[in-house]
Amino acid sequence: MSTPASDSPGAEDDEAPEASCELREAMIPVALHQQRLDKALAQLVPEFSRSYLQQLLAQGAVKVDGQTALKPAQKVRAGSHVAVEMRPTQQSQAFKPENLPLDVVHEDEHLLVVNKPAGLVVHPAPGNWSGTLLNALLGRDARAAQVPRAGIVHRLDKDTSGLMVVARSRPAMDALVRMIAAREVSRQYLALAWGAWRGPAQRRVEAAIGRDPRQRLRMAVIDLAQHPGKPARTDFQLLDGTADVCLVRCTLHTGRTHQIRVHMASLGHPLVGDSLYGGAGGGGLQRQALHAYRLAFTHPVTGQVLECFSEPPADMGTAFEMWGLRYNGFSGDA
Questions:
Q1: Higher pLDDT, 24 or 192
Q2: Rounded-to-integer distance, Cα 76 and Cα 259, Å
Q3: Could you give the residue numbers annotated as active site?
Q4: Residue 321: helix, strand or coil by DSSP?
Q5: Distance between CA 2 and CA 23 in Å, rounded?
Q6: Would the pTM of this model clear 0.90, i.e. be above it?
């Protein structure tokens, strides 16, 4: 293969999209005769992912014997000349620093605890290739570029607010990942849900979660004997309630996608504003009423016990007042 070098997709890249593209050229060897074009490209340009090369095909950036090739399944012939224009994609340019505000609750040499606002996406993804927490971390600290995913070790949904721990070094990141997997990081949330609370004030839900077989865009409580999924456990404690809504403290013991939202809906208490799981809007809230308010763990490097709190954001506080719900801060947490 030929031509000037350029940065690989996925690297931090501040150049504008119109920057000159790298051109890769090669001849199809006998060993790849009659192979699919996308598979042949993956062999000829092994440092790039097959999905990225398929994107280039769809953009008309690949030519075979001078003719634009658009079909990944097209068969190639030995001796054919292939030219690939290595264009930057939205994904390849997503991991770049941006000057975005961050509410830092705790900071030391090894980690950060940040208070994520509702509406902020954690990782770049289709529809949100910029303006994410990852971009903000890269913009805040040059060291973040040396850590996978800028040090992000767990997620919050876009419309869930609250505390997240972020590693600032690879050893801290590896340790935090192990601690989360071992359930050594305590995470508690405040949830505002529909309906008068039923049953005892303290309840435990142990119910596996997997992709909803009837609606693939959401998760559901499932039977592991019939559907793929993972075990999940959440503890709930009623803090206050009315005939219409309930304020609940939620303690995660596992970290499945949408876990609290799914488990609360399974109890007949969908979160206020959580339309995906049957919760209508109310109390002025424009998003699901879920806030990660407490994060506690032993520092993976210093051994210090860290316990961080975040007051409910203004939108949830306003909803508490509208429904006359009492919230007495952090008393009684453990």
A1: 192
A2: 47
A3: 157
A4: helix
A5: 8
A6: no
